[in-house]
Amino acid sequence: MAKIAYILLCHKDPDAIIKQADRLTAVGDYMSIHFDASADPAHYKAIRAALDNNPNVTFARKRIKCGWGEWSLVAATLHAVESAVEAFPRATHFYMLSGDCMAIKSAEYTHRFLDNNDGDFIESFDYFESDWIKTGWTEERLIYRHWFNERTQKKLFYAMFNFQKRFGLKRDIPADIQVQIGSQWWCLRRQTIESILDFCKKRRDVIRFFRTTWIPDETFFQTLVRHMVPEKEIHARTLTFLMFTDYGMPVTFYNDHYDLLLSQDYLFARKISPDAQDLKRRLGLLYSAQGVQFQISNEGRSLFKFLTGRGRIGRRFSTRFWETESTLGRERELLIVVCKKWHVAKRVLERIRQSTNVPAIEYVFNEEDAQLPALGGIEKTLGKRTRHRRALMRMLFDYFETDRLIVCMDPSNLDLLEDFAADRSVTRILEIECSFSEEYLIGHAMRVGLAGEQTSQETLDRLLPTIRNDMVFESDAIRDAQFENHCRIREIASSEENADELAKFLGVGREKAHEITSTDYLFAD
Predict the structure, then answer these.
(1) If we measure between CA atoms, which residue out of 240, 211, 84, 229 comes closest to residue 148?
(2) Is residue 290 a contact partner of residue 316, using CB atoms and an 8 Å limit?
(3) Mean pLDDT score of the chain
């Protein structure tokens, strides 16, 4: 059975550290603590006094002052790991934690998970080929030497960087090392940890290289594990649940996040608010609990992304710039069908195809696999289509050799609607207003990743009103935009009423429009 040695790096809140150590070791696991040498000495004395008699707790023999982005964080980790390897010969796994982490599963579940999933859990992606670094420096982290702390010694940090860059003082990456990158929160097997410690003694050149890289805690262990462990034994993921805002700041969890955290496919979570006392209490009791069943739905990240995207009018911080200098052409007519229920819009489009000769394309800006002709690559991705929307439409008009074209869009695409409505061409919009049952909303939540098969009813009850309100908001926003040629058919309206609106939209006779709107399965779920 798995026995875990937790590697805890911390610098504050001694009471929380003591409680964390007591909780995690009470079930037979271990802990090795590195308390930052720059922190309050009284706090360290309090921790030692409380835990020195706990046989399952040890301390790093050497304490150092740690700084963000420095080698000191890796060095502190190695010191704590060395103490753990020596003190706990029965430990099978070594799990990296911070003082802000807490278990979101029971020890029983955690041990069973590690027993059933042999391997090392660490994010380890190719440094140059992956997109793990979203913004900022990439190769500059490695090919220049960084001796100073970017946050506390900013002037020296950038002065030395600019000096090296100006005089071309680049360095080579060790020839036999392919640098990897990933989260610093890992869980490694004992044999892997022992191999890393042995490597550190033999390869001082690699240690010297990483000592002066920037943010080495995201590359050091990630690189070494990839060079020592067969790929099939590496799970390139972290077991600690953490999220970041659009500004790169870690999301903090509070008392009302208990159910959300337990449903994630992770063993720990970071960061728990120091003020979330009830959450800490409940999670603390959880680790030693027996027989707890967990419903894993894993919708945390998609739910966070969805909810934080609400409330922006223009629901963004500024209007995006698109190709405002281009036009589809004064003589052309773009017909846009707008509907949240995509299958309904597709049925309407299919009936229009059968009754008219107007070329029609389904959700071109929403579905990656929309049926588009080859247009030189502009059609390849949703990102390209959206960035070059007018160019794409012009090419489609030319491809079909037509001056009339119909496309479908989701109501959330208000910026696209406004852009096309402002064009010199004629733009007509047909909004299809549907009813949304609770079953449909649940299905929608699952389709877009906001919920899973195991999502609890309590979570759904909190989520569904938000989704419903969001759909109402989108429809209201379209009406508030007051588009010149805006028609609307409704699920609750008669086929005769809808025929009048559809006839205006298509520019066809009412009889032909009624032939379409009288289709009995048009609005069926």
Answers:
(1) 211
(2) no
(3) 89
